Amino acid sequence: MTTVNRPPSRRKWRSLLWRIGYKLFRERMEYWRDLGWRKYIDYGRIRTWLITPIDSVFRLLEIKGLLPDPIVALETFGRQGLWKTVEYAHRCAYLEFYEIRPSHAAFARRVLPADRTKVIAADSIAAVRDGTLHRSDFNFVLIDSFPEYFGVGYCEFFDFFPHLFKRLGNYAVIVINTFMTLNPERDVDPRLLERRRDFYNLPDTHGARKLSARNVLDAHARSIPPDFTLVDLFLVPHPGETVFVVMCVRRQ
Ligand SMILES: C[S@@+](CC[C@H](N)C(=O)[O-])C[C@H]1O[C@@H](n2cnc3c(N)ncnc32)[C@H](O)[C@@H]1O
């Protein structure tokens, strides 16, 4: 039997072109993709059909009377700003936005309000630790971290503590995207499990893959230095394996 060499179908060509394009222009393509999704999400938000995790954080803080005013915000892991930052940037009097990849930061400059935002392409953990932030009176901090061992030996959000407290005003809200569960199928760096064991004060690394709400709340309450008091601490659901830990603190 003779085999016929058929030309690849249009679908195959399209998928090949997409993959080549993605390799070459990945960040630009992500920007346009996320900008498209953003239009749908905002359509639902404006019509009160949906409330995102960031909207829930702000609504709960408003209801509880705990939202700072005016808001002086620090976004630590900003990406292109299209997932979370754009949802609250308009509420801020000042927003200092950090993203380590200059190409992502350049896209963030296009979408965030230029009159109140400083987009900085730099390492936010180093900026917090070394005190090179432009202000030291932040009253809203978002740490949209990921469960990884990364950069120069950083892990999740742990390396912001306790240095972050030196950069806060007298009252502040810290919002941390926290992974309660790590996908059991996923291979993880053993150092990530060790850091989680230490931060959450667990007996061993086994439990570091699946945390209870109690583990999370207790660990965050313990992370507050003695010159601050805890005003409120609560969880806001986030799709997937994460929750937002919302921590309201006051300097004594
Ligand atoms: C989960 S995404 C954040 C999404 C973002 N909050 C949003 O609203 O779109 C994490 C981002 O943090 C950036 N990143 C990683 N390490 C960083 C660091 N040390 N300082 C600043 N940004 C960092 C990554 O490049 C990535 O774009």
Describe the structure.
With 252 residues, the chain is an alpha/beta fold. The protein folds into two domains: 40 residues; 199 residues, Vaccinia Virus protein VP39 (Rossmann fold). The protein contains seven helices and nine strands; from the N terminus they run ααβαβαβαββββααββ. The chain has a seven-stranded mixed β-sheet, sandwiched between helices. The N and C termini lie far apart (85 Å).
> Helix- and strand-based class?
alpha/beta
Low-confidence stretches: none
Share of helical residues: 25-40%
**Shape summary:** globular
Radius of gyration: 21 Å
Question: Could you outline the blueprint of secondary structure elements for this entry?
Answer:
Elements: H1 10-46, H2 53-64, E1 71-75, H3 85-88, E2 92-98, H4 102-111, E3 117-120, H5 124-130, E4 138-143, E5 149-150, E6 154-155, E7 168-179, H6 190-199, H7 213-222, E8 228-237, E9 242-251
Parallel strand pairs: 1-2, 1-4, 2-3, 4-7
Antiparallel strand pairs: 5-6, 7-9, 8-9
Bound molecules: S-adenosylmethionine.
S-adenosylmethionine (SAM) binds next to helix 5.
Give a brief rundown of this model.
With 252 residues, this protein is α/β, with parallel strands linked by helices. It has seven helices and nine strands, in the order H-H-E-H-E-H-E-H-E-E-E-E-H-H-E-E. It folds into two domains: 40 residues; 199 residues, Rossmann fold.
Comma- or semicolon-separated keywords:
binds S-adenosylmethionine, single chain, 2 domains, 252 residues, alpha/beta
